[in-house]
């Protein structure tokens, strides 16, 4: 009731300010046609009839001009249109060949009707998105159907076109978390709630069925919801009155790919791609019912690497240093695993390069029915099946590989109804199901970890942990069934255009996750591994012996209202209000002991009802001729949840599972037995035999959990020099509150002591010793507030805001009839975003500087993971010339960062590799002598970039993401030839080259990266000074040169 009252008050206040004038602008979410109708004398014509007809499908709609001669038709299906303009006593004029694309606003500034002539007048209008896309200037990047067909993409996945947006950094938009990106297909959500992205397959839907694509970062239309960073949109093709079809095939293989790496070494590859498919569309009943069906399959064989010493460096010696382990040590580990005591297969490969085969299959069907002139019904179905063995544990041997299968189904029904020339309604219903199954390739056994110290040929040393056995989270079932209901009611009265709507998701989550339930054996050294003498066993055990499926409904609600008008003929204003709310349906099991000891309740169902989002956008056509455009917009945008933390709150409630972490009297690691019978791994019976009660690991939701809310604002200026060339400049600012934040409630608030570098340690110094090779490392139990619990991960919201500042300049040109060239440069800075976005909560561990509990004081100024200081994008699509065409895309960017770490957990939070290194100044007398000596030696040999990073941070903790990687480039090129076979039949041959520079010269087209960012290895603990002792990693900050090596694909496409 309160939200409804706010909407009414908002619109009422807005109406007082919005008056007058006919319109030449439209800011609605769909495509539109508008214009002014005059007599030859210049007098406006009132009540002229405007009838538009989509010549491809027969869709028609009409309207009339107002007293100022103005008309507007909104939310039209895309396609080619004929526009008939008629008035009593005047000549009828037909404007032909007007093509509307996604979001186009075709403005017909003046349509003259003759009073003297009576015969029909036909006029051909060459309209295109270059001049019809005022709404998108500075707010989004659009890709036309022709560009989608022409731009070289390795897997022909339409979402890969996101790279063409100068504000995109992978799946992150405008510096936001990747989970803050929304995905829309035909106006409904295409986002997978589990991780916040879309499918892991090569594509979720064939690019052959995609008509248009857009990345929108600063559109202030209230119909854009649940995307605080931006929204990725696409619309699919429809059948037309013309029977048409296509079949295609693409091929690539070793003989068409690089065989030499950037160091001149032979590349071990087994690369092959084969894609094929077909599409058929046309009329079932002309002008009435149309269909489109398609099938696309992508098979690829790709190299899969783990500890590949022939690939990781220019020489064997350098490769060993880059990987942090000698090949001899790794071979010793493999030999041990293949021994009878461990029983791992002797027939499989454990490191190097193997080949894996993936398969993506997609089927699509769409039917459009023009029921009558008032109603258009659309039915669409999409099916995806993806087989993916491309999985590997970080730092793991190839034996940790597992396979995944994804199955998706989506069914959408849409109805567009025109009640009268002033009122239309669009209703969309979608049901989608998502299933992902992860399974083993080898026997089901626990995980194993062995700490390895290596001495390299130059006398330097390395320390890493090698993983073997099975994956932490396999087997697994991710599943959800989503019902989405969207409705838009659009109403026009005079100069006011309203839209009222609702956008709702009901997501039924049915996951079965098994993280930490496999069991984990830890070995302090290779010698201990050879003796099968683990120092630690850890496992999360279901107390009832089973791992039940989790059922959680997640309900997302949305309502919105928007009004648009023209303050003057060349000044358009849109104001709107949106509200989004979310309800998590089921509460996790209540844990009374947790509430008693830490005062928090697991049995909560957060309801976020405060996401009220006012928005406004102003477009000023300075001279009223479409040449100079100024745009200013601002508004609030709510983000969306990812669901794995919700699932884990039902699993890790501290009641149904217990975490055993055994450091003394570790149970025997009977690997050979586990190979035959996983049930032999210590489990419920072992837990019940323990005399000491074992603590529980908990993840709980903040009862006040909120969706992140982003304030976005932007300003743009564009100048059209003529009908084929424009330039523009844009500035952006975003401020996000309530970013998702996951932290440990059970860590002591006051440190037990502070080390000589000023680091807060949360375990008593008396618990640390040098008696063994691991006894100087903290044990989690000693840093707990409540001994009955391990980590108590609290899924909440950050108390500080993250920010993004950006600027972008771009130029675009039309070349000939169908060619284009665009170039843009964006500079940005994103700070303050906590790293956790989605997935396994154990990966949420943020980098810790001086104090775990002071993170908000220093983390808010650190660069975010989505930060992208520089990006250049250029796209060239040549005009067709005697059937030949060339397409080229180029990127140059900096968007990867690094820091410096201690290799092990030393604060007592049990997360290795997340404690930031304190950068000792070797010239400071207070620096321990061994560290000063090591730092001086490192500064002489490390890369210039890492050296400068260290020097800039002498006497401080290394800032997270404080170092920036060098620039990277990628240049792709496609050449195509259309062979006309008669009539509409055509055969297209094409060649796609990915990384052209690398094809020209194997030394080109690569990039350099900073690796080995663990600055210190922990070697012991000094009780006298209450400080840890370190050795300086003499290979830290190595500059490694590598590349995305070139490949060539040949293709043929027959169409009619």
From TrEMBL:
Signal peptide from the UniProt entry: 1-26
UniProt KW keywords: Signal
One of the GO biological process terms: siderophore transmembrane transport
Domain TonB-dependent transporter Oar-like beta-barrel, chain residue ranges per copy: 235-1004
InterPro entries: CarboxyPept-like_regulatory, Oar-like_b-barrel, TonB-dep_rcpt-like
PANTHER family for the chain: OAR PROTEIN (PTHR30069:SF46), TONB-DEPENDENT OUTER MEMBRANE RECEPTOR (PTHR30069)
Protein's name according to its UniProt entry: Cell envelope biogenesis protein OmpA
